[in-house]
């Protein structure tokens, strides 16, 4: 191992130790989600998600929270554990197999989808791929109960179906986590959510650096909107709507 990778490992371990001491609740939730193989996101991405939800809560931004793309529900569990129980949280997914990519997606997505429909896709660290699991929605509901986040007491709404059919956002939105891989899926979310995003509100784009279609959708959608947004690369791309006053999330 090179000195550089050793140094990186030590810094990461120190970061985790600091988090375990300063934010034990976040640390525990993320560690359990990772251990139970409920999310494709790594520790840093889940922590960025957690802390962005906390920032929105601290700033008391109005508006619902949204996740587009839940799979096994790991990132949604982390978001739900960080938000105030009374803030509505809408989680959209087919809760079945991911829909096919379209003409807006590149070869990367087409090849990935072929593997999925050939039943050759592996899940997280050797588990079954989520799209092949029967009763996925029921399993996710049971996980929310098990994490002491029952949907009916925490304003959690699991919305089953294609975003193109189910997503009709008419309320202000404070934060959305978009983790849905393909061009049309990301574009549908942006078209529905961005016009309702409150000043200071944040869009977290999980796949901007991973899938060609997700990246094209974001680049196209925001091509004429740059002056109203700040683009920040953390473990994922965060797009924050500028505040109208001189207040920023702390
Ligand atoms: C990468 S997974 C989400 C991972 C998850 N956030 C986690 O913590 O591991 C992508 C999800 O997006 C969903 N999805 C993608 N496009 C969709 C669409 N157009 N309508 C509904 N669900 C969609 C898939 O069904 C899949 O569950």
User: What is the overall number of helices?
Assistant: 9
What small molecules does this complex bind? S-adenosylmethionine
* Range of strand content: 15-25%
Strand order of the largest sheet: 3-2-1-4-5-7-6
Q: What's the CATH superfamily, by name? A: Vaccinia Virus protein VP39
**Cα distance spanning the termini:** 37 Å
Shape: globular
Q: List low-confidence stretches.
A: none
Radius of gyration: 18 Å
Named CATH architecture: 3-Layer(aba) Sandwich
Number of strands: 7
Word description of this protein:
- This protein has a single domain (3-241), classed as 3-Layer(aba) Sandwich (Rossmann fold).
- It is 42% helix and 16% strand.
- It has helices at residues 3-22, 24-35, 43-58, 74-82, 107-117, 136-146, 163-166, 183-193, 212-222; strands at 64-68, 89-93, 156-160, 173-178, 197-205, 229-233, 237-241.
- It has a 7-stranded mixed sheet, sandwiched between helices.
- α2 (24-35) runs antiparallel to α3.
- S-adenosylmethionine (SAM) binds at residues 39-41, 69-72, 74-75, 92-94, 98-99, 162-164, 179-182, 185.
């Amino acid at each position: 191992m090179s000195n550089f990778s050793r140094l990186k490992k030590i810094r990461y371990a120190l970061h985790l130790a600091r988090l375990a001491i300063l934010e034990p609740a976040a640390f525990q939730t993320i560690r359990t989600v990772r251990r139970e193989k409920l999310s494709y996101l790594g520790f840093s991405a889940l922590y960025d998600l957690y802390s962005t939800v906390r920032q929105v809560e601290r700033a008391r931004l109005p508006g619902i929270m949204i996740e587009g793309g839940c799979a096994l529900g790991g990132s949604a569990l982390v978001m739900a554990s960080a938000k105030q129980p009374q803030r509505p949280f809408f989680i959209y997914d087919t809760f079945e197999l991911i829909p096919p990519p379209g003409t807006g997606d590149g070869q990367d997505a087409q090849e990935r989808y072929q593997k999925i429909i050939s039943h050759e896709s592996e899940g997280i660290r050797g588990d079954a791929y989520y799209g092949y699991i029967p009763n996925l929605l029921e399993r996710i509901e049971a996980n929310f109960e098990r994490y002491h986040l029952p949907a009916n007491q925490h304003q959690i709404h699991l919305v089953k179906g294609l975003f193109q059919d189910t997503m009709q956002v008419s309320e202000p939105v404070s934060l959305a986590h978009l983790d849905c891989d393909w061009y049309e899926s990301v574009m549908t979310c942006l078209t529905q959510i961005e016009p309702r995003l409150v000043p200071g509100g944040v869009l977290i784009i999980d796949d901007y650096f991973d899938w060609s279609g997700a990246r094209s959708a974001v680049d196209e959608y925001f091509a004429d909107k740059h002056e109203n947004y700040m683009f920040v690369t953390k473990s994922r791309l965060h797009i924050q709507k500028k505040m109208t006053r001189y207040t920023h999330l702390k």
